[in-house]
Specification:
alpha+beta; five-stranded antiparallel β-sheet; 4 helices
């Protein structure tokens, strides 16, 4: 089962962008943008996400950093962790200083949603197995 699907990423982006009033990007484990409030960015490589994947920690991008990194805008990029593995990166576009206070909340809510989806999937599979056994 793929944990971070485009459908789940799109849901996270839409709900988070509404609440933070910031552009949100979600990148897969290769640094490719799979969901974004700015639809024109979907499918491109985000070099800031690639840095997060390489160093396995939050990366803050300033305007100066973005001049050197393709496909980036100022903001904060955080690893999305599921069962001790990085499954993607979430990026919040905007002034990094202003976003620092929400970054951890966005990361936490993203990871919680992934766990909820995973356990729902597992529970449905368990129920189907029991139904087949009973039949």
């Amino acid at each position: 089962m793929e944990i971070l699907t485009e459908e789940v990423a799109t849901l996270i982006v839409e709900e988070t962008a509404k609440r933070t009033k910031s552009n949100i990007n979600i990148m897969n484990f290769n640094g490719k943008i799979i969901a974004s409030f700015d639809k024109s960015r979907i499918g491109s490589i985000h070099e800031g996400a690639c840095k997060v994947l390489a160093c396995e920690q939050m990366v803050i991008l300033t305007k100066k950093d973005c001049e050197k990194l393709k496909g980036t805008q100022p903001g904060i990029n955080l690893p999305i962790i599921f069962q001790d593995e990085i499954v993607g990166v979430i990026g919040i576009t905007g002034d990094p200083k202003a976003l620092l206070y929400v970054a951890d909340l966005v990361k936490m809510s993203t990871e919680l949603l992934l766990y909820q989806n995973y356990f729902t999937y597992e529970l449905e599979g368990h129920i189907r197995s029991q139904e087949l056994f009973i039949e």
